[in-house]
Amino acid sequence: MSQQALIQSVVQEVLRQLGPGKTVVSSGSGRPGVFGEVNPAVETAQRSQRQLAAGGLALRDGIVKLIKSIAKANAQEWGKIELDETKIGRLDHKIAKLELLSGVPGVEFLRTVAHSGDRGIGLDEGAPWGVIGCITPVTHSIPTMTANAINMIAAGNSMVVNPHPGGAKCAAMAAAAYNAAIKKQFNIDPLVCVIEPPTLRTAEEIFQHPAIPLLVATGGPAVARAAMKQTKRSIVAGPGNPPVVVDETADFDNAARSIIAGGSFDNNLLCIGEKEVFVVASVFDKMMAAMRKAGAVELNAQQIDKLTKAAIKWDKDHHAVNKDFIGRDCDVLGQAAGANVARGVDLLFGETEESNPFVPEEQMMPFVPFVRVRDFEQALDLAIKHEHGFGHTAIIHSNNLARITRMGQAMNTTLFAVNGPCTACLGVGGEGYPSYSIATPTGEGVTNPLTFTRFRRMSVSGSLRIV
Ligand code: NAD
Questions:
Q1: 30 pLDDT tier (thresholds 50, 70, 90)
Q2: Is the CB of 164 inside a 6 Å radius of any atom of ligand 1?
Q3: For residue 418, what are the domain limits?
Q4: 387 to each of 64, 244, 362, how far by Cα in Å?
């Protein structure tokens, strides 16, 4: 089946599941909310946002729940479609990332702050921004767009999305399915407007568009820099290179299980995923044994050297990660390393020097370097150095409260996972709620509906107080 036919069939299936109702208004492409150009997308998003604003909280709540139910119902099929298009990551985790969307907070997360005193009352309310311009990554194309949609629509906004070209078809397919179902059930025009095919020109048009007051860019260093340069407000969910520190007091089996769970998730595509590990020398061998016991496969020095040469190239004056290895399975990496790695292995690991490029680079592949360090102090210094000041994510395995506190303070990262996998900070293996846009340089943290509101105050002088 062609991609176009597949998209039509998914939209039809969503409509069939919803039963008979009003006719779907199409954006001309047969895929509601999918546009070749930015201007008509913004016009549609402005119209649908006005309809949303007129409908009140119950409407937003209904739409958010509908989007979550569609993502969940289609998780298996869409996970496969996303993997087929992007060719990076793992099917089981692509599916899990879509299922996790049901935990993204909705309208219940919105807050009104009330002030009451001798001089009257005041209300601080989170108002919508209007149309939000979104840039999304290839690593989680449908999940990022969908989590943004849940958060942004709960806050009363519509959106225009420029997805990564490598994951644009599946994003457009999912948006069309959401928009069709929203039209059918609530008679609202497309709220999730997607540019397909997206280009750097359409990204720039979104950045510059006068009817878009807020930008949300999720991706690596280039897009983070581009969004930070804009004169309008930008929320930037930028790159990470999360270090892990393991000290003498850690529970090594738990540390190994956690590093495997987080570092292998979707073949280490997560921006929060464990990327390099610093282990105190006196327990280094114990930690390596725990990794083997937990099922990770160790590469020897020669194999690591071969893998490094294939996967990370020296390009003029800097290292560049070879895209052919990003998000690929362990057996593919094993082949490059000259090691016979069975299919289904979750994670490769091995001892390296600090100077190995896998340590400073955000490799986004399931090989994690382990560096032997003198003591906790050196581990912390290297963790700070190789996080590069992104302020994204850091992880520690320790039972020494003073060290946990010290690392939390010194790293100054948005997320800090203690004695669990990185995903604990997003509610998987720990407490918290998920989002696929973790705003790092701009400071909003794990995005939620409140992130996409403008705080406005009404103050009533001398009356309306009932006590
Ligand atoms: P990428 O930077 O290649 O692309 C991300 C998006 O930015 C794409 O839509 C791309 O087309 C666009 N883009 C790139 N350069 C641009 C420019 N100059 N102007 C406008 N748009 C531009 O990243 P990717 O490979 O898709 O995703 C992986 C990266 O994203 C990693 O660095 C990862 O850490 C980061 N990421 C961060 C978060 C977070 O929440 N902080 C979430 C997911 C991914």
A1: confident
A2: yes
A3: 243-433
A4: 35, 10, 9
